[in-house]
Amino acid sequence: MLSWNQDHFLDAAEQGDIETMQRALAAPGICVNDRHPESGETALIRAAKAGQVEALRILCEKGAACHIPCNCGFPPLLHAAQNGHESAALTLLELGADINAACPNGNTALSLALAAGHDELARRLAERGARTCPRCREPSICPAPEEPTNPRMANALKRGPVLTPDVD
Q: Which H helix or E strand runs over 8?
């Protein structure tokens, strides 16, 4: 069971309530990387899911780890990508998140952004070297992807140009 401060801390991160976050972090017994006992979500995950960029920055300044996943195995970057929060995803990359981190089933930020229809975010991730397959060493599209089960992913993989960075 979460204490009042822990629960409010996680909620404040999700809502971008910086003042409440900072009060909670100053309270005894609150750690920036505390996890919700059921979901395993950290404050950083909650902020990433909700696209709260300022909260992400403050949490990382206070020592939040960009690599800690929730119980589903999704680190904060994957939550931001799946929910289409481009600014949050790019901020997490600036703060040290692994662009090719994958959840247990192999999805990456790029594959989740594509599957959810966030093409602009997918393009921006690809420009930074993101891969759809964590096993491949090539950026962007896996040269021999397994048969995607999501129709949107299959179409994006066929199209290609959505993932090709603009070259002058």
A: helix 4-15
Domain annotation for the chain: domains and CATH numbers: 1-73 (1.25.40.20), 99-168 (no CATH)
Question: Do 142 and 106 contact (CB within 8 A), yes or no?
Answer: no
Nearest-angstrom CA–CA distance, 155 and 162: 10
Model confidence, pTM: 0.81
Q: How far is CA 47 from CA 10, 76, 99, in A?
A: 8, 8, 18
Identify the three-state secondary structure at position 163.
Answer: helix
pLDDT in tens, the chain (168 residues): 456 578 899 999 999 999 999 999 998 889 999 999 999 999 999 999 999 999 999 999 999 999 999 999 999 999 999 999 999 999 999 999 999 999 998 999 999 999 999 999 999 999 999 988 766 655 444 443 444 444 555 555 455 434 433 333
The SS3 assignment for 85 reads coil
Sign of CA dihedral 27, 80, 127, 149: positive
Measure the CA angle with vertex 41, ends 141 and 82; round to 5°: 30
